[in-house]
Amino acid sequence: MNKIKGFSLIELMIVIAIIGVLASIAYPAYQDHGTKTRRAAAMGVMMNASEAMERFKTRNNYSYTAGTNGRDATFGAGNTDIFSAVIPATGTVFYDLSISTLAANSYTLTATPRVGTSQAGDGSLTVSNAGIKTWNGAAGWPGD
Q: What is the pLDDT of residues 69-119, one digit of tens each?
């Protein structure tokens, strides 16, 4: 008598169901991890931009406005701007970086998630010249 080797349809369906359950748990966790990673990268870029603002102030008579070249501290793509206006500077852009409040002695940097990206709805990040950080309107950044 020959014994038939292989899987039955029931066994195959059980394996597929188990894989489906594991995937339904793992995929959202993976997406959440990507969101947190991109947010952490934006926080790092904002700290670098904040340092660039301080260098600008030091080189321009201790003012964030009316620098030696007649320009205020700005973000953009040109060599005269102190930092890139998007995060990341290359590749898919997830945040727009701007100076939301600018005065001679103070500033507030804001990173706003770009609409249509996976970061949309994650909340804006801000940092001021005094080092005050907010995320989504609440004090502090995640992980601080």
A: 666 777 765 545 677 888 888 888 999 888 888 888 999 999 999 999 989
The two beta strands, 125-128 and 86-87, are unpaired
User: pLDDT by residue (tens digit) across 29-56?
Assistant: 888 899 999 999 999 989 988 988 888 8
* Separation of alpha carbons 88 and 81, rounded Å: 16
Cα distance between residue 62 and residue 34, in whole Å: 39
What whole-number distance in Å separates Cα of residue 36 and Cα of residue 141? 12
Per-residue pLDDT reduced to its tens digit, 19-29? 999 999 999 88
Phi, psi (deg, nearest 5) at residue 112: -105, 125
> Which whole-number Å values give the CA distances from 37 to 2, 32, 44, 56, in the listed order?
56, 9, 11, 29
Q: How far apart are CA 115 and CA 44, in angstroms?
A: 21
Before 28, cis peptide (omega within 30)? no
The residues with which 99 forms a beta bridge, in sequence order, are 109
Q: What is the pTM of this model?
A: 0.77
